[in-house]
Amino acid sequence: MLHEVLLALSGHPSPLFQSAPVGKSDANIQSLLSPSEAALLKSIGTLAERHRQLRDHVQWIESKHQSTICRAVATSIRQKHLARFQQRILDVESKILTRDATIVGAYDIVPLASIVAQFDDWHRLMFWLWEAVQSIQPATSTSDGCWGAALINHLRAEASTGFPEIESAAIELSRVAENAWLRQLAPWVVHGKLPAYGSSDFFIKAMPEGRTFQKKTELMPGFLSPATASSLLFIGTCLHQIRRLPQQHTKSVHPTSTLLTDTQLASTHLQHLSSLPLPINQAQLSRAVSAIRLSLSQNVLQRLLPMSDITQLLHCLRRYFLLDQSDFAVALIDEAEARLQARQQSMGRLLQQDPLKALKGLTIKDAELHQTLNATWKRLSREEDVEDHVLDFARQHVSLSTTTSNGARPVSSDSVTKHAAQVSPIVFNDLLFPTATLLSLDVASPLDLFISPRDVESYAAINAYLLAIKRAQVRLTELWRRTGNRRDHISNTNTARRTKDARKVWATSSAALHLLSEISAYLDGEVVKGSCDHFESWVEKPTSSEEMDTTMGSTRSETLDVAQRDPETLSAAHRAFLAAVTYATLLTDVPYTREVRSLLGNIDALVAFFNTLLDMQQKLGSEDDDGETSFAMEEESRITLELDRARKKVDSDLRSVINRLRQVDHERIGSGRYFEIKAGESGGFEPWKGGGVDRLLMKLEFGRMPDGAFDIV
Fold this sequence. Notes:
By secondary structure, the chain is mostly helical. Helix content is 62%, strand content 3%. The chain contains 25 helices and 6 strands. The strands form 3 sheets. Strands 1-2 form a two-stranded antiparallel sheet. Strands 3-4 form a two-stranded antiparallel sheet. Strands 5-6 form a two-stranded antiparallel ribbon. A hairpin with a 6-residue loop joins strand 1 (204-206) and strand 2 (213-215). The chain is elongated. The model is unreliable at 20-25, 248-259, 405-418, 549-561 and 703-710 (pLDDT under 50).
């Protein structure tokens, strides 16, 4: 019987532990057992059955599970824990054969209770191991089971159960799992390659085009902080891009012998990873990643992406996307208007009857947009006396196209945008041309280490918003150039009526121009200028490795001089800067953007109908004394009616915009006055905090308009 017990514990089937007797012999065996023996054998039978189930399930996980981390843990359970259990069986057998007094009693009798007592400490551990492998892959489920990150988190939690044997086993398996995770991480951190085996379990995934990567939060273990994960993503992306560079460009990254070679750099990075104690401590992992990032920055990135390239890109974005150079905005608007007027000449009657409908029917192609932007560049080039490198850069990388060929609105992506300001869904890109257009930037390697495609989309959204306000301002200003139409020459009844109707339009146009001028001055002169000046001065300020470590949560005491901040820190700071600018320009406020968009659309209608009416009246001016034809009078009356409707809509929108600005001023108080982001998430950069909406409202207080137009404030 002792032989049967030991064989059953080793995983072999035994008639002693059948759950239900299947034959007469089995029934006879059970009948030979006393109640105490049956109770003792039941405990041993449960342990033997669990051992057999655990062994078979572990073998299945080792051979078929898709997670290398889970397979590593299963292998460790089989090779260590189950091997220890098997060794315990052999030790008990050895004690019996050598007549050890701890088991063998007088007259060489081996009590069954003493055999059972030898395995008392294995019951809880064996059942816990069974639950652990069940969490990897349930025995009764056909699903894919859990991923490595979930298993690591589970093992870390189980280490705090309070039972010493379970705590020891959980810590031991955690070391195995986390070591497997580090093996996955090594090729990414050292060579910029995804792991050859188990890449489906790795938290970094390649995008479909194969050039960019993103993080999967659900595949990140608990000891990996978001900041450290972003740094790991950045490090691997840098190395991946370096491998893709042409050979001659790669050599230029290491032009002097003072920099580490690729082999030395890889060895250094591996040393940082291998020095991590297991289980992994979050702070120690953060310091190791910070050291790797600093090493990469000092030896490669400062030459791959020098500060001059970054500042040139920032100047380009400031000039042509944030419209810091007003000449570009005016030139682009003029070229766009000239192209639309050329297209309108063939419309004739339709344009006169309904100018808005005629414009909406126009379809602009990318080739025409390309010509418009080229004409704008040529105009700016003629105005420049000296060579402008920023303008040359913009001509090569900035394009104007329809939104069908580029994204129209920034969308949330991976964790780099987690703390970004959410841009309002209200679009302004269909005002420059009837077809929605977008100013975009072609960011090639290695500049994409600094700016992401979503950043470019955010810039495009801000540009469309600022350009739409500038365009409405320009169109209203052009109305005032028609000085002859603003003079009061009351020679007959028709002229007196026209002058009276026109005064209301001029009053509304004046109020709208004042509002747009103040909004534009606030956005351009305060928000954009203040934010850009503050950010550029921070970028150009030298830093040290101690400061870089602080942004990663490290507390190393040594300080090394660094010529520039590493690209990841600059990229994080740039995202914080862009989010703060988006927030300060009120582009995140949906009600405000909705009211402004309605105002700009109705201003277009007012200007179009007013110009049509003035041109019509100018042609009919010579016929006033002789009497106008009935058809001409009907057309004039219809256009006058449409103009009055547009004027009333503009009046209403002006009030709505002012009211919403008041509400925003009341809502953005305290911490909500500025866009808040933690220093660790912004690379240590603190965005500019200048005047709020209250400064804009003070400038808009200009009293009651004449002719009962409206009371702005």
